Amino acid sequence: MTTIGTSRLGRSALTAFTWLIAVLFIFPLLWMVLTAFKQEADAYTDPPRLFFAPTFEQFAGVLERGFLPYLANSAFVTLASTLAVLLLGIPAAYALSLAPVKGTGNVLGFFLSTKMLPIVAAIIPLYVISQNIGLLDNVWALVILYTGMNIPLAIWMMRSFFLEVPKEMIEAARVDGAPLPTLLYRVVLPVVAPGIAATALICVIFSWTEFFYAVNLTAARAGTVPVYLSGFITSEGLYWAQLSAAALLASLPVMIVGWIAQNHLVRGLSMGAVK
Amino acid sequence: MFRVPGRRQRRRLPLVLLAAVLALTGCAGAGALGAGDRTLVVAIVANPQMNDAIELSGRFEREHPGVRLKFVSLPENQARAKITASTATEGGEFDVVMISNYETPQWAANGWLENLQPYIDSSPGYDGDDFIPSIRESLSHEGSMYAVPFYGESSFLAYRKDLFEQAGLTMPERPTWQQVAEFAAKLDDDAAGMAGICLRGKPGWGESLAPFTTVVNTFGGRWFDQDWNARLTSPEFRAAAEFYVNLVREHGEVGASSAGFSECGTRYAQGQAAMWYDATVMAGTNEDPASSKVVGKSGYAPAPVRDTASSGWLYTWSLAMPAVTEHKQAAWDFMRWMTDKNFVRTVGEEFGWNRVPPGCRQSTYEIPEYRQAAEAYAQPTLDGIRAANQESTMTEPVPYPGIQFVGIPEFQDLGTRVSQQLSAAIAGQISVDEALRQSQEYAETVGEAYRETR
Which of A90, A174, B155, B227 has the most CB atoms around it within 10 Å of its CB? Predict the structure, then answer.
């Protein structure tokens, strides 16, 4: 019996199919990039226009409206919350994978359960609490919330990477008399580094693109990039090109980080799958 | 344990970078936290005219040293939710908020807003009497204005003069819905991708329900009678729903059940619709050479009617001051600046006269440059807004404020659910009768609550 992956015909069909899917997924993004360089009159035509005189006008318009403070807020919130997730999550993942005790499974379930409540159901209490403790329109409110939002996922992800660490290695280090911090940071971490990088990247992406908390809990000072981006959506007038330019600028940092971390990410994500 | 030489060194670099970025952005964040005490935070809806105001706001800051402006600009739905949450809980994030004539009377009655009448009366040259009476009335509570209008709109019918001429048709001065339906049937051309008429079908109380409710009104229907009995299955309401759904299904645009203002606007501006019944502000888009292929080809007729003298809706985006605002005088100075006669002039001279915020001040319509730039639609817009009151757009009295909406808090939810039924009927998933039966149930629940509290 020949499986689809091994016969030559099957393989090229599979390749073609993969390309098709890839193009299908990339196309909206590609279209956004193209539209960002158009004049408004070219942006929404029937039939759609593939060739046009490119312009940077839309980008200038976007930057003119004060993009930088939002960018700084987003960078701060994303980095601070990711850092906090790693600081809290790495020891937690270690404990839950390499040093399990009675009830570890319950703890894991508990972490996951914090993701089960839809955010929208908690937003009013969160709003009122933020207001009472003076964190409304404050970047730290978002740092705290994003840390809480990402930590369950990060622990689960990192735990699966930690489980891959050979037991013999840890035992050898213990025999050598390595104290826990040394064991964790000198022995375990270098092995799971790609996995941690992948986790960090996911946290960065989630924090960077988060909209619901940001739009509800910030106003003039702590707004993040997605909030800024949404300001370009208007119910009157046709501003597709400018919206595309803003969307492109907003997604660029994540794309760049993702591209740089690509190798780590692929290694990290496939770590659990390939033995 | 063994070490790879040089590895630690390299591993430290990202950490150093991270620390640097954190320190840098941390400064920005910390700086952002301690804002000066004379910063006005203004929440506005992200529409083109509001963005023009943001661009011009540097002038206000120069004229008022010591006052800094910060704008929070969000799409309509997010802005509405956010401003409502902030005002209702006295969150105090905003000194000036942009709200509509839907919120203003309700919030004024709740005591959430500062009464602006004393400010208006003590501002010489501001001329509060210049606001179009229907607009002023819609923003007032017990004789005092609680919001000042930035721009206002009614609804009217755009039609392609060239296509009408080709087909040998003439748009009457005051068209009826029957006539409009006949025109739509004649001009509808599937082969050429030409819709007879564009009508909103997208769910949302501010989307399809706005034009739809004006049709209901002029067909003699109403959402509630004086005793808060829901009237969505009355013969008049039913006739209006049948008419609207059939018209858009038979001669409307493709994909009507998901078409809102923007989608219809795109179609019309691309020359794919012979008529379009919608907000009067659409004229600005239709006549803008940068986005429209049909500049100069449109005529504008009053909102079509059946049993009433007129049927245009009334809507305005206005500036209000939450009662908890700290810098009241500075906030008023800004509101005054943005709704003043001079602001209209400044926009006209800086950005062009077709970008002037329309539909608030009668004096705007006396400016020769504006009259010329907006020749095709200035008068129809003004007439539409002037005629937009319950007395001339409805056949029977109702217990709520509003023309195209029911001015009660429950309407956002009720209207959206009813509009989903309407969209389903437009998409052909359910019959008009089923849609109305379900909608009547929703409305009856709301009506009951009001009957009990009477």
Answer: B155
Contact B233, B441 (CB under 8 A): no
Cα–Cα distance for residue pair B78/A7, rounded to 1 Å: 54
Q: What is the pTM of this model?
A: 0.81
Q: Which fold has domain A66-271?
A: MetI-like fold (1.10.3720)
Q: Is the CB of residue A184 less than 8 Å from the CB of residue A91?
A: yes
CB contact under 8 A, B279 and A236: yes
Q: Which CATH superfamily is domain B155-314+396-453 in?
A: Periplasmic binding protein-like II (3.40.190.10)
- Number of Cα atoms under 13 Å in the Cβ half of residue B227: 1
Yes or no, beta carbons of A72 and B28 under 8 Å apart: yes
B41/A219 Cβ within 8 A:
yes
Locate the domains of chain B by residue range: 39-146+315-372, 155-314+396-453
ipTM of the complex: 0.74
CA distance B116 to B136: 12
Q: Side chain identity at B279, as an amino acid letter?
A: A
Instruction: Tell me whether A169 touches chain B (CB under 8 Å).
Output: no
Nearest to B33 among A127, A138, A215 (CB): A138
State phi, psi for B103 to the nearest 5 degrees.
-75, -40
How is chain A split into domains, by residue range?
A: 66-271
Cross-chain residue pair B28–A73, CB shorter than 8 Å:
yes
pLDDT tens for each residue of A107-122: 889 988 988 888 889 9
Distance from CA of A109 to the nearest CA of B (A): 32
Alpha-carbon distance A162 to A156, whole Å?
Answer: 10
